[in-house]
Amino acid sequence: MPVNNVSFGSVIAVSGKPKKVNKVSSRLYTQMQVGDIIMKDVTSVYKNASSEGMLAQSAQRGDKVEIYITGKDVDKVRNQEPEWDTLGGILSNLSTYFNLNRNTVEETVNSISES
């Protein structure tokens, strides 16, 4: 009997040239519309950050940065559970990062869809 992957949820960051990041959003549009995925553009958060992390570096060189919340984590955000009720709290739960300058749009979309 085949067994499907079990998904408990993820917070996934994606950065890259705006055109590529927009392709990811477009491909996930239906899942966002039905509420299976929440997307937030956090470019401005990282663009002005004093951090030297990968997301801050991406935003500061002109890349777009978005996060995708999937699975059970969508409910945590909607219910505003502790540590999920602010953008900072959500960002502290990042689990995966895709840099579209290194990863393909296809593999990024597939990974987000399966989370």
Write the layout of secondary structure elements.
Blueprint lengths: L9 E7 L1 H10 L1 H5 L3 E5 L1 H5 L6 H7 L3 E7 L1 H7 L8 H5 L4 E4 L5 H10 L1
Parallel strand pairs: 1-4
Antiparallel strand pairs: 1-3, 2-3
Description:
The chain has 115 residues and is an alpha+beta fold. It has helices at 18-27, 29-33, 43-47, 54-60, 72-78, 87-91, 105-114, and strands at residues 10-16, 37-41, 64-70, 96-99. A 4-stranded mixed β-sheet has the order 2-3-1-4, with helices on both faces. The longest helix has 10 residues, at 18-27. It is globular.
Based on the model shown, name its key terms.
single chain, 115 residues, alpha+beta, 7 helices, 43% helix, 20% strand
Short précis:
43% of the residues lie in helices and 20% in strands. The protein has helices spanning 18-27, 29-33, 43-47, 54-60, 72-78, 87-91, 105-114, and strands at 10-16, 37-41, 64-70, 96-99.
Please count the beta strands (DSSP E, at least 2 residues each): 4
Hey, roughly how much beta strand do the residues contain? 15-25%
Total DSSP helices: 7
Main sheet summary:
4 strands, mixed
Series of secondary-structure elements, N-terminal to C-terminal? EHHEHHEHHEH
User: What helical percentage do the residues reach?
Assistant: 40-55%
Give me the Rg, rounded.
Answer: 14 Å
Report how far apart the termini are.
Answer: 22 Å
Quote the average pLDDT.
Answer: 90
The outline comes out as: globular
Strand order of the largest sheet: 2-3-1-4
Low-confidence stretches: 1-7
- Class from secondary-structure proportions: alpha+beta
